[in-house]
Design goal:
689 residues, alpha+beta, 5-stranded mixed beta sheet, elongated
């Protein structure tokens, strides 16, 4: 029976049958539901429509409002043109499950007088009761979808809390029912295990990445089809492994949250990571991992602390500054920043300037870093020194037992490449040679696999040709470990290694400057809760590179008998250098004297010098220079000897005293050795010693 809501002008227009399924899974498996929806065409025919158009563009698309539906938009557009007498669906919930699309459809149907038809009822939007009923059904459809979603999520979350919800497996794992299992491919297992070993050994994810790139090793990743593929590693690949607790044997769920927003053109879903405390589930030791949970957490915290923030020190860099990221200002609590100064940009300087840069506040403190680094090094080596020998021997034993990780990885790559080549050959051999379209493609694949085998074999050959470092004798290593300062100050010692040692033992250093005492205060917070304080005199500009005080004292004594040119030669003969490490010249000695107000050497007009060198003093006493030198070394006569390989200096007043006369008299009474040279003998050289 035809309803009275259907008028002749409705039948003169065409009818639209809207068919929709919410997901691709429903389209593939819920065939009966699709058949019932298409069967609505018979109902429209029975109601009197001859022109019926089926719109099934939205199969596999949800009507919740989160995705764009081309079929629904085309249906609404045709309704707006007034060419549609009825829109039909198996259930009206097929049209929309959100208020925006539902109300838009109802309003357009009311304006152009189009009826809505489902399997039971015919609705006329121009009738108040039908419009009320459609409004209620739209709200119920939307609420029903939310209710179903909430029930589904509740069941999903409850299963996740039990650790039984396994959605997808990252690379290195496969799904085994409600739990994870390690990938049976030993090549994948060894590669992932090598990632964690290198990160722990080198101290950062970036250094581990550079190690893999240096040795041209690939890492496994998940492809779009879920298959494991091998490719050149990048930082994100290594960092995801470190951050994912599944590799430590833990089950985790709820690590991210989705936020839906509108950017002015369409809805946008933003995925953000949640704090670990907000995760829905985190269950250590839920399955077998690639490393233990404790080691995985140690590696994760180490990599996280490499980010230079207020809470972390930052990763050790190549610079020579030892305390970058460890110093904190006692006045404002901010971390001190580092910059390098000097002509070669190698002199570190620490300053608390974040308040000035960020908020325009006055600068707190600033000081040179060389002296501070030296003080921390001294304190550190004092702590580490007693265990240096044992640590060195342990490191050598570990180095002996360490396997060649690169060679093992290349051997696994070679085994996989040979398997791929053998498999390609079997496929080529099984094909019909006459069918060149197939045989040609299989032959190309076989040649590509053989080229891969040749490439890996070349890598192994190149690796084997590298000269192996000689094994260090444990005895010599023990002797070297005794002098830890020598090892620490050696140019070959990596600055990053020294910084890692410092960060292992020191939590942070609180710094301040005492302007009244002109001192730098350092409060060292050692790992474990012990604190120690160091106070250093604050140096003036250029004081670090100033000449040694011993050199200055020697110059003050040498000017008594020598000119600047002679003093420069004496200093160079003793291996002494300037504050900047340069050799001495006459000009540099002159500049040193001028800076320190040291008088210049001047000979007297009458020739009676108040200070004499060894030769002149011996000639004055009528003894040999050797006799006078031995007496000075024995302390029998007062003399000045500023440098080991330098002149002896005698005062004319001392040479006139009783000890000098006694030495001269004793030399005359010894008949075996003459007291001096013959007066007529000439000297070829004018000696100053």
């Amino acid at each position: 029976m035809i309803s009275d809501k259907i008028r002749p002008h409705h039948l003169q227009r065409k009818a639209l049958l809207y068919v929709r399924q919410s997901s691709a899974h429903q389209v593939l498996h819920n065939r009966e539901s699709s058949a019932l929806q298409y069967a609505m065409r018979d109902r429209l025919t029975g109601l009197g429509w001859s022109e019926i158009e089926v719109i099934d563009d939205d199969l596999g698309r949800s009507a919740a409002g989160g995705v764009q539906r081309a079929g629904f938009e085309r249906m609404v557009a045709q309704v707006c043109l007034g060419k549609v007498g009825a829109v039909a669906a198996r259930e009206v919930s097929r049209f929309a499950r959100n208020s925006r699309d539902w109300q838009q459809l109802i309003e357009m149907c009311r304006v152009v007088d189009t009826v809505l038809i489902d399997q039971e009822t015919i609705y006329a939007p121009r009738h108040g009761n039908d419009r009320l009923l459609l409004g209620l059904k739209g709200s119920l459809n939307e609420y029903e979808l939310d209710l179903l979603r909430q029930r589904s999520l509740s069941a999903r979350y409850e299963k996740a809390r039990r650790g039984e919800l396994v959605v997808s497996a990252p690379v290195g794992f496969v799904k085994a029912g409600d739990r994870y299992e390690k990938d049976p491919d030993r090549r994948v297992q060894e590669a992932i295990g090598l990632v964690f070993e290198k990160v722990l050994e080198l101290g950062s994810a970036r250094q581990a990445l550079l190690w893999f790139l240096e040795h041209d090793l690939d890492l496994p990743v998940k492809g779009k089809d879920g298959q494991t593929i091998w490719r050149r590693p990048n930082y994100a690949t290594i960092h995801r492994m470190i951050e994912n607790p599944i590799y430590g044997g833990a089950y985790a769920y709820g690590k991210t949250a989705a936020t839906v927003g509108y950017d002015g053109t369409c809805t946008k879903v933003t995925i953000r990571r949640k704090a670990r405390s907000d995760w829905l589930a985190l269950m250590p030791n839920a399955h077998e991992g690639y490393v233990s949970w404790e080691k995985a957490e140690t590696i994760r915290k180490m990599v996280s602390s490499n980010v230079p923030t207020s809470r972390h020190h930052g990763a050790p860099k190549h610079g020579d500054a030892l305390l970058a990221g460890l110093l904190r200002c006692r006045r404002c609590g901010r971390k001190l920043t580092l910059r390098y100064t000097g002509a070669k940009h190698h002199i570190p300087r620490y300053s608390c300037s974040r308040g000035w840069m960020d908020n325009g506040e006055p600068r707190c403190i600033a000081f040179g870093g060389l002296r501070v680094d030296d003080a921390i090094e001294e304190a550190l080596l004092t702590v580490v020194g007693p265990g240096a020998i044992a640590a060195a021997l342990t490191a050598e034993n570990e180095a002996k037992g360490r396997r060649d990780q690169v060679r093992e990885a290349l051997n696994r790559d070679l085994e996989a490449a040979r398997y791929a080549a053998d498999r390609a050959f079997r496929q080529y051999d099984a094909a019909d040679p006459a069918n060149r379209l197939v045989a040609g493609e299989l032959e190309a694949r076989w040649n590509k696999a053989l080229a891969r085998v040749t490439e890996v074999e070349g890598k192994i050959a190149a690796h084997d040709t590298v000269t192996v470092a000689p094994v260090i004798d444990p005895g010599s290593l023990a002797r070297l470990a005794v002098d830890l300062k020598t090892v620490w100050a050696a140019p070959s010692t990596d600055a990053r290694l020294k910084k890692r040692i410092v960060r292992t033992l020191i939590h942070e250093v609180i710094t301040d400057i005492d302007p009244e005492a002109a001192e730098i205060g350092l409060l060292i917070h050692w790992i474990g809760g012990v604190h120690s304080e160091i106070r250093l005199p604050r140096r003036r500009r250029g004081q670090r590179n100033s000449t040694s005080g011993d050199v200055i004292a020697a110059v003050r004594q040498l000017v008594l008998i020598a000119t600047d040119n002679v003093i420069a030669g004496i200093l160079n003969r003793n291996g002494l250098v300037t504050g900047y490490g340069n050799r001495w010249t006459r000009e540099r000695v002159t500049a040193l004297r001028s800076h320190h107000r040291i008088p210049v050497y001047k000979s007297t007009d009458d020739g009676i010098e108040p200070w004499l060198n060894l030769s002149r003093a011996a000639r004055l006493l009528h003894v040999s220079p050797r006799t006078l030198r031995l007496a000075a070394q024995a302390g029998e006569i007062e003399a000045i000897h500023p440098l080991p390989d330098g002149p002896w200096i005698f005062s004319r007043t001392v040479l006139s005293a009783a000890p000098a006369c006694a030495i001269s008299e004793r030399a005359r009474q010894n008949p075996k050795y003459p007291t001096g040279s013959h007066p007529g003998q000439q000297n070829l050289f004018s000696s100053i010693t």
